[in-house]
């Protein structure tokens, strides 16, 4: 009788432990076949892809990163790189549109956030990383450009000169081009100006007074063209000493919930190791009871 009680008790504990350790929270997309075969109401064009890229960078890149770069956030479930051949081969236009429309888990639904046109534009942009994806029209090619930067320390001004190479290989001033000025930050670039070049190809800004720099007041400024499709990815960086000096204190020097293992709160470490030790103690106890049951069975 006692051996039966021990057997049931041991089996119950083993079942509970198995249930606890076998639960997996990985979610799966369930996309109907008719949705997978859904086609866009219009053909993909380079102009629509450009629009989709802009919407994607605004709404999607914070989690998914930039396709083909592998810079997506390490979330659970993992967003993944949308530019890989694995994703492209397993996701049709209809599938991508469905995921944008419905959302799942930590991915929000864009059904009421984006228009139908914008959702198809984002779909086109994502699918444009598929070598077999068909795009109508002719892709516009960017001209060869150059940016030079000068500074006025007294007036705290930055002046960028934009030039382009004509068909004869001569550099000419570039008029009416949008030039953006950024201050480099840890989690992106802070915009401090967006100016069109004048008749002489110059774009000038005054450095803001409220920009924080390093401990010596230095700040790294990035100057580039806004329209990268037309003017390419030409960019220039310049370090200026006009920012406000800031002495940063590393928050990881103190114990916080967001710290690493060496700086985690003491109570959290005690709780964690107590749980680990408790789980192993239960497992060893179960093994001991099973061994004991076998011995009793032989008796």
Radius of gyration: 29 Å
| The first-level CATH class name of the largest domain | Mainly Beta
Tell me what the CATH architecture of the largest domain is. Sandwich
Low-confidence residue ranges: 18-26
The helix/strand order is HHHHHHHEEEEEEEHEH
User: Rough shape?
Assistant: flat
Instruction: Give the rounded overall mean pLDDT.
Output: 85
Strand content range: 15-25%
Q: What is the total number of structural domains? A: 3
Structural class: alpha+beta
Strand count, sense and closure of the main sheet?
Answer: 4 strands, antiparallel
DSSP helix count? Answer: 9
**Alpha-carbon distance between the termini?**
14 Å
Number of strands: 8
Q: How helix-rich are the residues, as a percent range?
A: 25-40%
Stated plainly, the CATH topology of the largest domain is called Immunoglobulin-like
Features:
single chain; 299 residues; Cytochrome Bc1 Complex, Chain D, domain 2; four-stranded antiparallel β-sheet; 9 helices; 36% helix; flat
């Amino acid at each position: 009788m006692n051996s039966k009680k021990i057997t049931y008790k041991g089996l119950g504990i083993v079942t509970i432990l198995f249930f606890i350790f076998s639960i997996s929270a990985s979610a799966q997309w369930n996309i109907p076949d008719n949705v997978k075969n859904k086609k866009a109401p219009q053909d993909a064009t380079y102009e629509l892809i450009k629009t989709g890229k802009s919407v994607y960078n605004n709404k999607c890149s914070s989690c998914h990163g930039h396709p083909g770069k592998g810079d997506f956030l390490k979330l659970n479930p993992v967003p993944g790189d949308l530019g890989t051949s694995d994703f492209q081969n397993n996701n049709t236009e209809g599938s991508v549109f469905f995921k944008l429309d419905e959302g799942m888990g930590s991915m929000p639904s864009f059904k009421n956030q984006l228009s139908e046109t914008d959702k198809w534009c984002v779909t086109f942009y994502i699918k444009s990383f598929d070598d077999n994806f068909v795009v109508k029209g002719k892709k516009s090619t960017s001209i060869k450009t150059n940016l030079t930067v000068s500074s006025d320390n007294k007036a705290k001004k930055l002046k960028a000169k934009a030039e382009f190479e004509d068909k004869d290989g001569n550099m000419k001033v570039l008029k009416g081009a949008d030039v953006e000025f950024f201050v480099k930050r840890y989690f992106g670039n802070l915009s401090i100006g967006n100016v069109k070049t004048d008749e002489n190809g110059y774009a000038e800004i005054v450095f803001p007074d409220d920009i924080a720099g390093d401990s010596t007041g230095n700040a790294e400024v990035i100057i580039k063209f806004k329209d990268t499709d037309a003017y390419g990815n030409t960019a220039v960086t310049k370090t200026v000493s006009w920012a406000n000096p800031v002495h940063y204190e590393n928050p990881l020097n103190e114990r916080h919930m967001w710290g690493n293992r060496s700086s985690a709160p003491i109570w959290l470490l005690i709780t964690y190791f107590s749980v680990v030790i408790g789980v192993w103690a239960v497992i060893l106890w179960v093994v001991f009871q099973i061994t004991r049951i076998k011995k009793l069975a032989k008796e």
